[in-house]
Amino acid sequence: MAHAKRPNRTFEGRKPQAxxxxxxxxxxxxxxxxxxRLDRDPQWSQEELSQAVAERFGLELSATTISKIxxxxxxxxxxxxxxxxxxxxxxxNAVLDLPHPVSEPAGER
Length: 109
What we know:
Elements: H1 30-39, H2 46-57, H3 63-70, H4 78-88, H5 92-95
Helix pairs in contact: 1-3, 2-3, 2-4
């Protein structure tokens, strides 16, 4: 029995395009992470933020990676977002522009 030929899944030298509108980047949270880092007193460099995340969470995010995240050139995993928000004292829901969860009255689930 002959096997069906699998489709070629290469990008033929093209980079995958980010989801969302043109010019929107790979994530919507990066610029907010950058602003929180710059608003901090004393202000942190990307290297200092990288060290703080590593010390608190054991998560290796290089200064270069943080730079790419802040410029929305790299997407973030949920655990990276959580770590960055925790270190910077941010509410992840606010960074993601999500409404705060509303508690439901008992029995209405």
